[in-house]
Amino acid sequence: MYVEKRNFGGDWYFVFNVTVDRGIEKMKCVALDKSIDDQNRNIVLVDRYRFEDLWFKLGKDEHVQYYNADSDAKPVNLARCAKKDWLGCAKYSSIEKCFSDTENNPVPIASFVSTSSVHGSRGWVETNGFGVDDLTRTIWLLANGAKEFPVVVNSYESALIVHDLIGVKGSKVYTAKDLHKCAKVIPLTPIY
Questions:
Q1: pLDDT, tens digit, for every residue of 30-76?
Q2: Which residues contact 178 (CB under 8 A, 6 or more apart)?
Q3: Cβ neighbours, 10 Å, residue 39
Q4: Kind and range of the H or E element at 124?
Q5: CA–CA dist 68, 163 (Å, integer)
Q6: Which of 6, 12, 93, 163 sits 20 to 30 Å CA-CA off 127?
Q7: With a threshold of 0.90, does the pTM exceed it?
Q8: pLDDT at 129 over 70
């Protein structure tokens, strides 16, 4: 995984290169000032296979596919479905547009949260301490073959838990300070 610092509209962002089936897609998060030791915005590199496994175990069939309202398709478990099912998601086409020009307009990184429940299309879902905000973005990455991808976790303690559960082996929880150090290196070097 590579990270760089880029300016968009006068604001600085960390931009991550995420490898998918069709090549490299870029995802971004705000680059906080390197003098700020912010423990409330941390990056964890997620291992897709560890994520899918945990998602399935925690979901208890609550994470189901949501199709267009006029569809007769039977809902499927998102954590254990085929690519065609992810592509059939009602929101997939809108997120596909977001990933159409990530070189000039990187997609914001999804947020993972430490929580006991999240509210979704089927109401409140028990998460056993783990939740995903921006699920459609995550589904896009899975459907397009990303083996690892960055997520934002809003608390250092939660980030340590998420990293322990689904983080890429050999990586760590990256704070803004860590990312400023990694992003300085030209040419790009891996952050782990």
A1: 887 665 556 667 899 999 999 888 777 765 555 555 544 556 666 66
A2: 172, 191
A3: 14
A4: strand 123-126
A5: 34
A6: 93
A7: no
A8: no
Measured distance CA(153)–CA(136) in Å, rounded: 17
Q: Are residues 88 and 79 in contact, defined by beta-carbon separation less than 8 angstroms?
A: no
12 membership: H or E segment, kind and range: strand 11-20
Distance CA 153, CA 161 (A): 10
CB 64 within 8 A of CB 48: no
Biggest CA pair distance of the chain: 54
Angle at 63 between CA 62 and CA 66, to 5 degrees: 115
Residue 170, amino acid: G
Residue 89 has a pLDDT of 72
Q: What is residue 69's DSSP assignment? A: T
**Rounded distance, CA 44 to CA 151, Å?**
5
Model pLDDT, residue 188: 56
Q: Minimal CA–CA distance to 43: which of 14, 78, 18, 4?
A: 14
Strands 11-20 and 23-30: antiparallel
Burial group, residue 3, by CB count within 10 angstroms (0-12, 13-18, 19+) = buried
Check: CB of residue 139 under 8 Å from CB of residue 86. yes
Q: What is the CA radius of gyration of the chain?
A: 17
Residue 117 is predicted with a pLDDT of: 57
Q: Which residue type occupies 153?
A: V
